[in-house]
Specification:
By secondary structure, the chain is α/β, with parallel strands linked by helices. Helices cover about 35% and strands about 30% of the residues. Helix 7 packs across helix 9 (about 300-315).
């Protein structure tokens, strides 16, 4: 019998998990506090339904996906992990690094598998760019940046960095292969006091690799651009474009007789296999319910929360 997961939370993103797992043949149950919504989902997907997480735990599913509001991730995650259940916690993992660290420790103690829903780590383009970096196509990685800009999606309970940047932090850490050792950030508030609408964060990684994240929800156009700059070339990916191409810029600066010389050849599009990131993420989870989770594990989720917390504290103190 196929392994079965239970999705906790039947809201917008929870329904994406429910639909995808159903298509995969791995949806076993749904937890949703709103009885009317739950009844509609059960009638549509024909699986077990619960209004109480504890009742779902009693069914001993192979794993649980927590797609509830972020402020509930810690309490629900702790309940599941203390029971030794395998858990995928949507991002952000928790709202404090103390809580995320505690969940990692509980998972280690109970030998439960803990994964965090950093979706872009399973985007085929991001995985391909990681392969290209590791293969040396752009030489030594020197600088990278991620812009996530849009008009709208303004929140009243969290700032733009907490809302937008978890994706970008997880991607930068993944591509570099380590968390940042220093973060310096500046935020600007225009529409609400104490809630930043624009944030620029600068990162220093091991081996002096530099990076920045620029996020804004008051921007005239949508941009989700990732750029990697190495000693022998550069890569870019624009996720908000229709083409979603990875572009390789085979250009660099050489030194000739003590003078800088720009060496470049025409850019090329790097092919990669297109696939839906959520399906890839859930396939990875299903394949690691009985083995170590290496991508988007609890520790990597904790590292992301630490950065979110650091940036928030820096902006609040200025």
């Amino acid at each position: 019998m196929e392994k079965q997961l239970c999705v906790i939370g039947g809201g917008y993103w929870g329904q994406n998990h429910i639909r995808t797992l159903s298509q995969m043949g791995n949806l076993g149950g749904i937890v949703e506090a709103d009885k009317e919504r739950l009844d509609k989902l059960i009638s549509q997907y024909h699986v077990l339904g619960f209004t109480d997480v504890n009742k779902a735990i009693e069914q001993k599913f192979d794993g649980y996906v927590v797609a509830t509001p972020a402020q509930t991730h810690y309490s629900i995650g702790k309940l599941l992990l203390e029971s030794g259940q395998n858990v995928l916690l949507e991002k952000p993992m928790t709202l404090s690094s103390q809580h995320s660290k505690e969940l990692v420790e509980i998972a280690e103690r109970t030998q439960a598998h803990l994964m965090v829903g950093h979706l872009l780590l399973f985007h085929p383009a991001i995985k391909r760019m990681k392969e290209l970096i590791d293969g040396g196509i752009i030489g030594k990685l020197r600088y990278l940046y991620s812009n996530r800009l849009n008009m709208g999606k303004v929140r009243t309970e969290e700032d733009v960095f907490w809302s937008f940047a978890p994706h970008d932090i997880s991607v930068l850490n993944y591509l570099v292969g380590a968390p940042a050792i220093q973060v310096v950030a500046k935020g600007s508030q225009f529409m609400q006091s104490e809630i930043s609408d624009v944030v620029m964060a600068q990162f220093t990684y091991p081996e002096n690799i530099q990076a920045h994240i620029f996020v804004s929800w008051i921007h005239p156009f949508k941009e989700q651009r990732l750029v990697l700059i190495g000693s022998k070339g550069m890569l870019s990916f624009e996720d908000s474009s229709s083409e979603k191409n990875i572009i390789h810029y085979n250009k660099c600066v050489d030194w000739v007789n003590g003078q800088p010389f720009i060496s470049e050849v025409p850019e090329e599009v790097i092919p990669y296999e297109k696939a839906l990131p959520l399906a890839e993420e859930l396939k990875y989870l299903m394949g690691h319910l009985d083995s170590a989770i290496e991508i988007a594990n609890g520790q990597s989720g904790h590292e992301v929360v630490k950065v979110l917390e650091t940036v928030h504290d820096q902006i609040a103190s200025t």
